[in-house]
């Protein structure tokens, strides 16, 4: 059986680069740390380090460390929820969200819940839509907000809102004064900045631009930085215009398939804490209230 304590010890040794520095951080003796690693290797059935100095992980060790990080996040989150429940203060909520939603809707929703519930606590992680269902299914968060992509039978994805994608460029770019929506062929002379969030998107034009892009980023903030630096142009959801830096413009695209539906993700069958339920309900109400200002369409069957 794999021990939580020994998994945590493994992570410390891997991060610290050896047994002695890990022992100092853990407040344990080096021999106790070595014994924990030995017990873990016996339970796994394979060596986790390439040599006795414990400074280089084996392939099995790398996989174990990566998996252990997720396991411990889930474990620590569950322990915090249990303690809160025991104190009759079920006020903790862990959230995964795409950047555009985390930077616009979530802050106000969290503020409103906090105003009504003095003991409310929230931890927000930015996660790509393509990993949202797995993050929720693995119990790493209580709820997720992201574009509907690949579905899983153990995760419910309830649509919340629909918004269009737009061409993102500097305010001095020729597209700003073009006088019509942008067509994909208009981008032939511009370097395109792809984004990991496009993965598995159904828009053929967007996928084609992404596949042929010279530059790639993993977040809206990085995309804004490259556009500002005149590296190229990109495409982002209209909602992201609310967090765009000064000097950036969003220009409509002609392709109506360049859009997304953002959903709330929860693990099927999981009993949600009152705090999580309140955050979801507050977010839904906020989208109704802000729909016009955010230039989105509220999905009413949510």
UniProtKB/TrEMBL annotation:
Annotated HTH lysR-type domain residues: 2-58
ATP-binding listed as a keyword: no
A GO term from the CC aspect: protein-DNA complex
SUPFAM superfamilies assigned to the protein according to its UniProt record, in alphabetical order: Periplasmic binding protein-like II, Winged helix' DNA-binding domain
Pfam family, one: HTH_1
Alphabetic keyword roster: DNA-binding, Transcription, Transcription regulation
MF GO annotations: DNA binding; DNA-binding transcription factor activity
Domain of life: Bacteria
Stored Gene3D superfamilies: Periplasmic binding protein-like II (3.40.190.10), Winged helix-like DNA-binding domain superfamily/Winged helix DNA-binding domain (1.10.10.10)
InterPro entries: LysR_HTH_N (IPR000847), LysR_subst-bd (IPR005119), WH-like_DNA-bd_sf (IPR036388), WH_DNA-bd_sf (IPR036390)
PANTHER family named among the record's database cross-references: HCA OPERON TRANSCRIPTIONAL ACTIVATOR HCAR, TRANSCRIPTIONAL DUAL REGULATOR HCAR-RELATED
Family statement drawn from the similarity comment of this UniProt entry: Belongs to the LysR transcriptional regulatory family.
Name of the molecule in the record: DNA-binding transcriptional LysR family regulator
Species name: Aquamicrobium lusatiense
């Amino acid at each position: 059986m794999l021990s939580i304590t020994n998994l945590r010890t493994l992570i410390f040794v891997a991060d610290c680069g050896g047994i002695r520095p890990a022992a100092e951080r853990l407040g344990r003796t080096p021999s106790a740390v070595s014994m924990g690693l030995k017990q873990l290797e016996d339970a796994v059935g394979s060596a986790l380090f390439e040599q006795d100095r414990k400074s280089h992980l084996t392939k099995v060790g790398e996989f174990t460390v990566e998996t252990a990080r997720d396991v411990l996040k889930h474990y620590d989150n569950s322990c915090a929820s249990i303690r809160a429940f025991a104190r009759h203060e079920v006020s903790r909520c862990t959230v995964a969200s795409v950047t555009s939603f985390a930077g616009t809707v979530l802050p106000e929703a969290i503020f409103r819940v906090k105003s009504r519930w003095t003991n409310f606590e929230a931890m927000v992680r930015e996660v790509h839509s393509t990993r949202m269902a797995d993050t929720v299914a693995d119990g790493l968060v209580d709820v997720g907000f992201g574009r509907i992509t690949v579905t899983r039978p153990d995760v419910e994805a309830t649509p919340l809102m629909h918004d269009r994608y737009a061409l993102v460029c500097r305010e001095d770019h020729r597209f700003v004064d073009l006088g019509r929506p942008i067509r994909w062929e208009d981008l032939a002379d511009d370097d395109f900045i792809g984004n990991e969030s496009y993965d598995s998107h159904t828009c053929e034009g967007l996928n084609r631009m992404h596949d042929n892009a010279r530059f790639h980023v993993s977040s809206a903030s990085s995309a804004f930085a490259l556009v500002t630096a005149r590296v190229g142009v990109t495409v982002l959801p209209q909602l992201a215009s609310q967090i765009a830096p000064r000097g950036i413009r969003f220009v409509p695209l002609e392709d109506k398939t360049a859009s997304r539906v953002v959903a709330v993700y929860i693990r099927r069958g999981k009993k949600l804490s009152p705090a999580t339920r309140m955050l979801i309900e507050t977010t839904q109400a906020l989208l109704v209230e802000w729909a016009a200002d955010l230039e989105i369409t509220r999905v009413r069957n949510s």
